[in-house]
Amino acid sequence: MKNILEAPYLVEMVRTTTNMYAHTWDERNGGNISLMLDEAQVAEYLDVNAVLRTIPTGFTAPELDGKYFLVTGTGKYFKNVQYAPEVNLGIVRLKDQGQQADLLWGFADGGKFTSEFPAHMMSHVARLKVDPQNRVVMHCHPANLLAMTYVHSLDEREFTRTLWQMCTECIVVFPEGVNVLPWMLCGTNEIGEATAKKMETARLVVWSQHGIYGAGKDLDETFGLIETAEKAAEIYMKIAHLPRLNTITDEQLHLMEQRFGVKGREGYLD
In 131-218, which residue ranges form alpha helices assigned H by DSSP? Predict the structure, then answer.
């Protein structure tokens, strides 16, 4: 059996959490990630029949029965993942219609997965229906996107258009735009259900005055998706109080669509 700490997906998870903390997206124990794994990926490093303990999930998701996830722990600091991955991360397999999770590795201090686990799993279900290649759900607290929710309309079309206008690449990176939720109590099934619904039409969902959820095929893609939106929000926050003499026009955004073979969300461009 190979050393789990050398598994490429674990190495990349450690790198990603460390990088997210360095970007100041995940202060203290803020933020969480879940990465769906194939059984073959897990079985190469762990005995999949050796269950350490079983943890109730508090939700139902029969679509995910038998699925494996590498997930960050509740109350854990991203800055510590690189030093003690076996304490701050865990690998679980869902069963009993998603209501139970068998712990196969990690959470060595007796901990468990993030309190946002229901929101993650509901988002995985929603994204898999749209794109079977979806493997990652990532939540963090980028400062400029948060700030933007205090001073900008939360209308999804307007929010998206503003981000598209801040960086030329934005419409290429997230042509489906950004969906937005009003402030909701975090760690509940209600916000999980609302996020999953928004995930049906976009890979980015902003939680107003809280953070953002991103989804993608791998950790790199999902990180880059959030990184691009956050850069656009940073530019907006730097210029929002100033008269705008120039901007990226809808005509220019249409040129980007043609050049890069993407299609902006229907009805979002004039």
Answer: 143-151, 156-166, 170-173, 189-199
Q: Does domain 116-270 have CATH number 3.40.50.410?
A: no
Q: Determine the topology of domain 1-115 in CATH.
A: L-fuculose-1-phosphate Aldolase (3.40.225)
Task: Give CA separation, 8 vs 31, 43, 66, 218, 247, in Å.
Answer: 22, 14, 21, 12, 42
Does pLDDT of 187 surpass 90?
Answer: no
pLDDT digits (tens, 9 = 90+) for 88-104: 999 999 999 999 999 99
86 catalytic residue (yes or no): no
Which of 27, 86, 116, 169 does the annotation list as catalytic?
Answer: 116
Q: Which residues of the chain form CATH 3.40.225.10?
A: 1-115, 116-270
